[in-house]
Write a structure and sequence with these properties.
heterodimer, A: 44 residues, mainly alpha, B: mainly alpha, two-stranded antiparallel ribbon
Chain lengths: 44, 359
């Protein structure tokens, strides 16, 4: 039986991918949040 | 070993400037992006006031685009007619940009505006580049092929006054390149960048030019836009520092050559994500510098001018007493350096071919 056929490994890989994607989305959201809030503070 | 820049009135380390400029040049050559949107923030971090960083980087871009454009001219990969149409829009956009620059300079907000513009541009480019490169890596892993439409029509394609562009084999409204040039010129005047990151995708996806003509035509347009930006900055504000321009040009021309050679040897698509992270990091550094850093502690700006040597005194007097001719000289200086670099590159490449044929 090949490792790629084991269900648990596939699940772990897809979990890792969605974890990375969520992390990326959150960091980009935080980044944009900082610059938008900073802009408002600067101009007020 | 610090050197005093007579026009910008700050002390800088020339080796730092040369190295940074060469690193940005390598990245430009490797990823095919213009280096302006990275180099100007780096100059600001080194203590050069933003208004001076923008003007001098525009002059540096002039030299590098002249160098690249000469190479494309020799290879005959340039659409002059299309380029000139974009330049028409570029001239209007640049004038509007300089007008906006003057307005913010008069109310004392220009440094904040430049920092904010960079922050947003870097955030947009970095986010798009990161999402696109990760998507490409994901697709490559899953072996998915994209089905793209052959022709996508936007409102811009329905504009009147159509004209034939034989070299690109296009029948397009003259307003399409003019509008694109206008946007590029406006951004170039405010931020001191060439605008290739807007121009290249617009030429490929909106104008639909053949890809082999895009880099040369983009560089051709950049020459005119950066000439106007350099001249207006020099004439209006006397902000071009030839000493700084010389350092920037030497570093970036060497760096671009190394980057292009590296690009031929390694596959840069996987590295695009890293480049995106670098762009985002520069953006966040600007955000930190604009919102949180204490600007009173910056020790590089000097209030008293030290004893200048003959060369620095000459630059200062020339800029103050004859701003029109100083502007023209700055442009000619950059064009000379750019053309010289293109011919040196051609000579080296021919020499290398002859050596390979002999051995």
């Amino acid at each position: 039986m090949q490792i790629s056929n084991v269900k648990i490994f596939n699940k772990l890989i897809s979990l890792k991918v969605s974890f990375v994607k969520t992390g990326l989305f959150l960091s980009l959201a935080a980044y944009w949040g900082v610059i938008i809030v900073g802009t408002f503070i600067t101009f007020n | 070993m610090d050197v005093f820049l007579p026009i910008a009135q700050v002390f800088v380390n020339p080796i730092e400037i040369l190295l940074l400029s060469a690193i940005v040049g390598v990245l430009s050559g490797l990823f095919g992006v213009g280096g302006g949107f990275l180099m100007t923030p780096f100059l600001i971090f080194l203590g050069i006031p933003p208004a001076y960083a923008v003007a001098n980087e525009a002059n540096n871009i002039l030299a590098t685009s002249v160098s690249g454009s000469t190479t494309h001219y020799l290879k005959n990969t340039l659409d002059y007619k299309m380029g000139l149409m974009i330049v028409v829009g570029g001239v209007i956009g640049t004038s509007l940009g300089i007008f906006t620059f003057s307005y913010f300079k008069d109310i004392g907000k220009i440094d904040t505006v430049i920092s904010l513009a960079y922050m947003y541009i870097l955030a947009i480019i970095g986010s798009l580049m990161l999402v696109e490169s990760l998507g490409e890596i994901d697709k490559a892993k899953r072996n998915v092929l994209d089905k793209k439409k052959l022709h996508v029509h936007y409102w811009i394609h329905g504009l009147p006054l159509r004209m034939r562009f034989p070299k690109s084999k296009l029948y397009e409204s003259i307003f399409t390149p003019i509008i694109i040039g206008l946007v590029v010129g406006f951004i170039a005047a405010i931020m001191g960048i060439g605008g290739a990151f807007i121009l290249v995708p617009a030429m490929i996806y909106i104008i639909k030019m053949p890809t082999k003509l895009v880099p040369g035509t983009s560089l051709f347009v950049t020459i005119f836009v950066s000439v106007i930006v350099t001249f207006l900055h020099s004439f209006n504000y006397g902000s071009i520092d030839l000493l700084l321009v010389f350092l920037l040009v030497i570093g970036s021309i060497i760096g671009v050559q190394i980057g292009q050679k590296l690009g031929e040897k390694i596959d840069s698509s996987g590295l695009r994500a890293l480049m995106a992270v670098l762009i985002l990091a520069v953006g966040i550094a600007i955000a930190y510098d604009s919102f949180f850093a204490d600007h009173n502690t910056n020790g590089t700006v000097t209030s008293t001018i030290p004893d200048l040597n003959f060369f620095s005194q000459f630059i200062l007097d020339f800029s103050n007493e004859m701003p029109f001719f100083y502007g023209l000289f700055s442009i000619m200086f950059a064009i000379f350096l750019g053309v010289a670099a293109a011919f040196i590159r051609r000579f080296i490449s021919k020499f290398r071919k002859q050596m390979l044929m002999k051995s």
